[in-house]
Design a protein that fits this description.
heterodimer, A: mainly alpha, TorD-like, 10 helices, globular, B: mainly alpha, 3 helices, 40% helix, 3% strand
């Protein structure tokens, strides 16, 4: 009888389809706020199918359909200009993408220090090559993606831990960001992105209360 | 717009799926890899406590401020 070495058998943590879906949405939102989408990404979004669910008229699929329509109508150069106009220049951006700014009115304040403590607890840190601070919305979304599905060398965390990170570092300010983007008269494509972000995070918040 | 109120008899998985997470996320899976990875991705430093610890010089300074 063949013996199987224990070290040769490894199981990856099970991640459900809906958690993969959440992680993918976090990845997309992180990507859209790290830099303007290029033409390939816009084309991919534009070619995505509209969605239907058991609950017709559910806010998230509707917001997704509006993103598809926006990606179909706009070109990459226009989005790049809009991105630079809205988010360009740390400290002088029309719309600031950092938690600390929205919570305190200033950059690199207490919320950033608390976030760094959470990073340390979770065993995470900013890449050395990265200049943006950890409280940038794209960074926070990337952390959520990693917490949900893990990476090659770290397992996903449970929903309770995801909830704590979300409630401590995302939920207190994300709707302020949504309002900031959607009320800007300079926002066009990103107004639709902002609506998707707000809708998705409200679904997230509500889902954490469901047992 | 629909209210996002959790139903007592709808589990978390059901709530997410009914809200469209599953289908939207499946499409996002096709979309997201089309572009470069997000450069803000944190690296893992499991087991390393990176919280601020005052160094010797800082500790000496704090000693001078005691009353």
């Amino acid at each position: 009888m063949n013996e199987v070495s224990q070290s040769s058998v490894a199981f990856r943590a099970y991640v459900s389809a809906e958690d993969h879906g959440r992680a993918n949405l976090y990845a997309l939102i992180a990507r859209l706020f790290s830099s303007a989408p290029d033409s390939a990404l816009l084309a991919a979004i534009a070619s995505a199918a509209p969605l239907s669910t058991e609950d017709d008229g559910a806010p998230l699929p509707m917001a997704w359909s509006r993103l598809i329509a926006a990606a179909t109508a706009i070109d990459a150069d226009a989005v790049a200009e809009e991105f630079e106009t809205l988010f360009g220049g740390v400290g002088k951006a029309r719309v600031n993408l950092h938690a600390s700014h929205h919570l305190t009115g200033f950059m690199m304040e207490k919320p950033l220090a608390e976030l760094r403590d959470s990073f340390a607890t979770l065993g995470l840190s900013r890449l050395d090559s990265q200049h943006a601070t950890e409280d940038h919305v794209a960074s926070l979304c990337e952390v959520m993606r990693i917490l949900i599905i893990g990476t090659a060398d770290r397992a996903p965390v449970n929903v309770a831990t995801q909830r704590v990170f979300f409630d401590d570092h995302i939920w207190p300010w994300i709707e302020k960001l949504e309002v900031s983007i959607c009320s800007s008269e300079l926002a066009n494509f990103y107004r639709v992105v902002g609506e998707l972000v707000g809708t998705f995070f409200r679904v997230e918040r509500a889902s954490f209360d469901v047992r | 717009m629909n209210e996002l109120k959790p139903s007592a008899n709808l589990g978390r998985r059901g709530f997410l799926l009914a809200g469209g997470i599953g289908s939207v996320g499946a499409v996002a899976a096709v979309v997201a890899p089309k572009a470069a990875k997000v450069p803000l991705a944190p690296k893992t430093t499991a087991g390393v406590d990176e919280r601020y610890v005052a160094g010797e010089r800082a500790s000496r300074y704090y000693d001078t401020t005691r009353v």
